Fold these 2 entries.
Entry 1:
Amino acid sequence: MTTTHAGTGAEATIPPVGSLEHADAVELLGLVAQLEHVAFARLAADSALAPTIEQRLELSRFAAAAVARRDRVLARITEIGADPVAAVRAYDAVLDDFDARTPPGSWWERLLKAYVGYGVADDFCRLAAEGLDAGSRAVVLEVLDDASHAELAVAELDAAGSADGVLTARLALWGRRLVGEALGVVQRLLVQRPALVRLVALGSTSQPDAPPNAPTKLFGELTAQHTRRMARLGLTA
Amino acid sequence: MTTTHAGTGAEATIPPVGSLEHADAVELLGLVAQLEHVAFARLAADSALAPTIEQRLELSRFAAAAVARRDRVLARITEIGADPVAAVRAYDAVLDDFDARTPPGSWWERLLKAYVGYGVADDFCRLAAEGLDAGSRAVVLEVLDDASHAELAVAELDAAGSADGVLTARLALWGRRLVGEALGVVQRLLVQRPALVRLVALGSTSQPDAPPNAPTKLFGELTAQHTRRMARLGLTA
């Protein structure tokens, strides 16, 4: 298969196969697809554990929506001529460490973990997506904007937290623990995946040469987003 | 809310609120919705346990499809003026006994359990659906016909079983255990839910008065379908 930069329409948004740009796009798309698959698995497990039938029904809908989002990303990987299964497999264990280090002790901790964990991961992918070709970027941003499960977490945690000062204090602490571990995941990803470093650098500057401060800016941005997210729950980040 | 038998179009397919027919329809729709929800939960758990990424992706799609099917049934319950959450809640623990009695010992046993268990449940609901008003019947039959997860089980079990005589023999035994327990679930449902007995009776005869032999016919039919299902896998029922 060959593609050219001179093509128009959909073709023009597909980076040439074998190019660095192409390989980097497949890396980020693979990560996003894996994160949506993990979101499906977590939401499905949350549905099984949820205290009420209404929550079980709602969480299963969120799980199904994550499958649809993941498949939109997989379709893009196929579209640019790469193997979607291989791209997802490359990130197979991406959150295993995070999960092992942060076993939630209650339903509320579980909800907050999803909210904070997905939040950091989504923000990271959104920033890296700025370095993608236009077509892939559009898919990633659309998928991340659709991730509506945060709404449930916010509504529930807000209702529970505002009525219970001890819970609020405990959850604020848990949130700090979670964001530390989540930023650790991002740190390890950047060490292991030069493609992601290149995308973040490309996205954060108009110069394609990676500026040395791109990762620092990235962590500043991720932390600021986390603080805003916790504030929505009335929790101190 | 009032509905009349004299209405035309969609209205004509809605049994009058408060009628026995109406209450019976809500019972069966609640059971079907619960079974689809259970299917979602099982398929999602299967996805987490599946040996390959391809299977994990495929099973998550089946899980998402079960959510869509369940929601089609819930929409029908709303349409006929009943509370969908209450209708599902009524069957909350419907497969708990079945699950406790049949813990699968391997991936293959798990696959066969889903195939046999869902098979019997679907067949039962299909037969009882014959006693429903036309609109509700159409929804139930459409939902049951879409249940495509059986295809995966058949393909996988067929491939594995044909290469391994010991596995085949063991699975045939497991299948007999499963169908016995599944028919036990149907038996208990008929004892606990007179509405389901009325629907089966209505569906199996042109006389609306329940013939005394309807349950016997039902179990004969369920067993015959199970035998056909096992034969598709090359297993003796």
Entry 2:
Amino acid sequence: MPDKKLHLTAFMRPVSLHTGAWRFPNSHADANFNLTHLKSFIRKLEAAKFDAFFMADHLAVLNMPVEALKRSHTVTSFEPFTLLSALSQVTEKIGLAATASTTYDEPYHIARRFASLDHLSGGRAAWNIVTTGNPESSRNFGRDEHLQHSERYKRAREFYDVVTGLWDSFADDAFIRDKESGIFFDPDRMHVLNHEGEDLKVRGPLNIARPVQGWPVIVQAGQSEPGRQLAAETAEAVFCSPRDLEGAKALYRDIKGRAERAGRKREHLKILPAAFVLVGDSVEEARGKRLELDSLVHYDSAIASLSIALGTDASGFDPDGPLPTDLPETNASHTSRAGVVKLAEDEKLTVRQLAQRLGGYSGLAFVGTPESIAEEMETWLREEGADGFTVVFPFLPQGLDDATQRVVPELQRRGIFREDYTGTTLREHLGLPRPENQFFA
Amino acid sequence: MPDKKLHLTAFMRPVSLHTGAWRFPNSHADANFNLTHLKSFIRKLEAAKFDAFFMADHLAVLNMPVEALKRSHTVTSFEPFTLLSALSQVTEKIGLAATASTTYDEPYHIARRFASLDHLSGGRAAWNIVTTGNPESSRNFGRDEHLQHSERYKRAREFYDVVTGLWDSFADDAFIRDKESGIFFDPDRMHVLNHEGEDLKVRGPLNIARPVQGWPVIVQAGQSEPGRQLAAETAEAVFCSPRDLEGAKALYRDIKGRAERAGRKREHLKILPAAFVLVGDSVEEARGKRLELDSLVHYDSAIASLSIALGTDASGFDPDGPLPTDLPETNASHTSRAGVVKLAEDEKLTVRQLAQRLGGYSGLAFVGTPESIAEEMETWLREEGADGFTVVFPFLPQGLDDATQRVVPELQRRGIFREDYTGTTLREHLGLPRPENQFFA
């Protein structure tokens, strides 16, 4: 597999996804509403040739106990479409992925905004399709009852059909603009969708020309059964959260297999696990930085995370002792609980450190030197655990600088990451074909 | 009134609002999806110290006979939020007004996007509240029946309360960001809206800090009875379409009076009639250019406009003769019909020219030299027909260049338009106060 290369996208919150990061030395605690910082971040990512900048999003102030809420920088930030449109003007090549919900928005609006972002950015837009699982969002959109999981996925599938149908409203050559004859466009090259399905009824046509990329790139994060199936049928990049390489390989095989059974090519769907990347001069120094970062998570909110993971109240445990070995039997998922116990043992964490890890960021992490991290990434690529990674930075700006200035050059030295962009659109960066218009040759 | 000055906003479609403009010599027929042109336009408007750039919008491909539709450049363009967010990064001072519908969107989304645009632009956002009157939009949003006019305005009023309530979710000083104590924000300075009204149910809080301007500037265009009342209660800038100075003065008095009766200050609501501005070296040359522009409207679509205005089929009239004097009695509005007859007489227009005027742009127009146009604008300002204008350019880029480089200097020479911006936010340009937070002192 000499030519196989990694794809890298940056999964961003302005202050980082780690809940203690805003307190880290030199962090920009005001970045949620300070565009200067975000412009600097995306320019650095583009200089490092990342495939895309991917903005995380929520449709509510997250439901947390007030003691945790008041310590969280993740509560408020820019709205993704407005932010990414602004950032499109300070960059030229990097992809721009926005999260948009199929449960709390209208397909006409979603189709239109992504098409517009794609035109504005010269073909760099991607849609991260989410079905919005948190019930507090429903109450911001007039509903007491949150839509059931399977209902959300059924609607999402139909929503996708409508949005992609609307993107194909005009043939690529519909706009003639012949000043002499006065014909602006050929109405025979315009398609009226007239969709009437179980959940949605949308006439069309979309009042915007076909996107530069044909369709913006489709991204999805689901790992549930309907989530995997939706991804296999529709997604071109899958953002997932395996815990380790074995889990990743199983997920990779499963989703690629489903895609093939749905009549798609394996290589037209990229598997990009989320990976927290923390760089040090030595593995020990990197681990020390991680403990320092975790220590900034307040114990009150941290211990709540540990209690939830264990399924038992952990607030009575000695914070500075090891995790008790005589945990009571509970209803907590065995997998989740076993993972927590193993984590404490492997890294010799105290109860406090374990709680702060869970309250900070506890997903897949590559913590080490540029060489060790590049080595891990290369292994995942070669063993088909990943086609690349959705990189999570532990803190900003330093964590992003370390990844772009230290890890990326090591990946390039190994020949598994591009030295420069070879195309101009996100589809070209990801090696994805431009979809044919389903209504016009 | 020595200090009274005009406010000028530019009412934009990328190729102009005039339906023949894309065929005009040197026009940018591709501007609907060519951001380079729009960036150039807005930079010129900012250099001329315009208050705001105002993007017209629709939520559908407009319902026209196919013969007219295929000749129209108004069918497709960028979506306003994505466009204005992009343009915020190539400008520093000019206001950015987006149209958003209260009938086909959710208040949480609308509040969030305008707040985000306001943060991204440093306090330059304005919301043009529309209730979306065209029935073809309803079919793009799952509805067969269009909401009745009075129902739309009732919902709009409640929608406004929800959006402004969401903007006030956080006190201006809520975000403490004390790295030492770990407190990111003060939960006592966050308000949960818990709105439950007749049409809307929205919990809140909004997941975004209070906008730079407190609230983005509220703009409205309604001239109907409920439209005027909604404007008087809520709008800070009214975009209206009087036919002449007498009509404008009556509308001005009416809306300002209603605002006072609603407990507001007259000067906190700016009346900005739409005005088509076409400049020539002489009045005759300007009128000639207008005839040339109108002549680019195809006769088939033009004659349909005339038939509608007269309430009778005009396709049998001699295109190159005068309007027949023996028009049959019809159900057409007498005002509209009398206006058309008067227009034909005043400007000695043939049937063809009259039809092309109606099919092109037939609203209030200032057609003349920089001096004559400035004189008219000054009269409207002094006689309280307007606090400024929503300028419509006949063709681009030339019409915009003429207005900014020839009319604006003449207005400045007369002391009725700013030489430079004195503030940084749109509220400051318009002389509007920053609203108090309704939930926090």
